[in-house]
Amino acid sequence: MSFESIDAWWWPFLFILVAGWLATDAWRFLGVYLGGRISEDSDILVLVRAVATALVAAVIANLVMFPGGALADTPIPLRLGAAAAGFAGYLMLGKRIVVGIAVAEAVFIAGYFALGL
């Protein structure tokens, strides 16, 4: 069975509901249920946190190195420089995510206009 196997108006909505919501929420509910019983310093929770962090880093790296749309028309050094500046801003200004994002955006926008793109 695939997404195109049923030709009804309601099928895409049901597909999104089942594939996107039920499949992920079961794990979320299990995480909430078991999360209260697991120590924050346990090996399994450290592993889960490390895998989650690695997945986020991989998604960010993929978006920076192989972007789509208008971002693909910008030079790679500009994208890498903005990401590096955002990370440096995050580390130097109190490890706040919002600060890192703001610094990366400011560097990217300034570089974008400086290059005349």
Tell me the layout of helices and strands.
Layout: H1 11-35, H2 43-65, H3 76-92, H4 97-114
Task: Explain this structure.
The longest helix has 25 residues. The chain is flat, with a radius of gyration of 20 Å. The chain is an all-alpha fold and 117 residues long. It folds into three domains: 37 residues, no CATH class; 27 residues; 50 residues, no CATH class. Helix content is 71%, strand content 0%. α3 runs antiparallel to α4. It starts with 10 loop residues before the first helix and ends with a helix. The chain has four helices and no strands. This is AzlD domain-containing protein. It comes from Aquibium pacificus. It holds the Pfam family AzlD. Keywords: Membrane, Transmembrane, Transmembrane helix.
Question: Strand tally, please?
Answer: 0
- Fraction of residues in helix: over 70%
Q: Structural class of the helices, strands and pairings?
A: mainly alpha
Low-confidence stretches are none
- Beta-strand proportion: under 5%
Shape: flat
Please compute the radius of gyration using only Cα atoms.
20 Å
Overall pLDDT level = 89
SSE series: HHHH
User: Please, how many domains?
Assistant: 3
Straight-line N-to-C gap: 45 Å
Number of helices: 4
Q: How would a crystallographer describe the biggest sheet?
A: none
